[in-house]
Design a protein that fits this description.
The protein has six helices and no strands. By secondary structure, it is mainly α. Helix 2 runs antiparallel to helix 3, helix 2 crosses helix 4 and helix 3 crosses helix 4. The model has no long low-confidence stretch (mean pLDDT about 90).
Length: about 190
């Protein structure tokens, strides 16, 4: 089955549109990381509300029964309530969510760093050089401390990094759209 030149142009246009949206989102995340973080939390709140409503609807009317009926009811109701709470107070939800997630990442980084240092010092006779692993462990510990003591800054930097990646991917999509467009002209 061959694809017409018009269809190829539409694919190129859709790909360019994806790139433009990705570029706008990336620039938004780079320029306004705090607001972008709030938008991400709001999107999560909307998804929780939709998930809770659809889950409860499925249990009530859709025949979505499982062996743990009351567990499913409670889980979907909590999803709905949490989503509504996030939508009611997005700023507070952003601060609490970001702080909680950054704390989890910080604790995980601390544990990994300490484990690396402990394991390499216990088994140093098996390694020619232990300093790269010790340096890696210390880096993890420092990263964990930054996440624990500066959670909002860490999250903002993560959003900026994500924005930079979005901009890079957007230019990749622009290149792909251009190649698709060139192929549509050749057909």
């Amino acid at each position: 089955m061959t694809v017409s030149a018009e269809t190829k142009r539409r694919f190129a246009l859709a790909t360019a549109l994806r790139g433009a949206l990705m570029l706008l989102a990336g620039l938004y995340a780079i320029i306004w990381p705090g607001e972008a973080l709030t938008v991400l939390v709001l999107a999560g709140g909307i998804l929780l509300v939709i998930d809770g409503v659809l889950g409860l609807w499925s249990l009530t009317f859709g025949g979505g029964k499982s062996g743990n009926y009351w567990f499913d009811v409670v889980a979907n109701a909590l999803s709905l309530i949490l989503g509504i709470l996030i939508l009611i107070s997005p700023l507070l939800a952003t601060i609490l969510t970001v702080t909680f997630m950054a704390s989890l990442v910080g604790i995980a980084a601390l544990v990994v760093g300490i484990m690396q240092i402990v394991v390499i010092t216990r088994e140093r006779e098996h390694y020619a050089r232990i300093w790269p692993v010790v340096l890696s462990g210390v880096s993890y510990i420092l990263l964990g401390l930054v996440f624990l003591f500066f959670p909002l800054l860490s999250a903002s930097l993560g959003v900026i990094f994500g924005g930079v990646l979005l901009v890079i991917f957007a230019f990749g999509l622009f290149g792909w759209a251009w190649r698709l467009y060139q192929r549509s002209k050749a057909a």
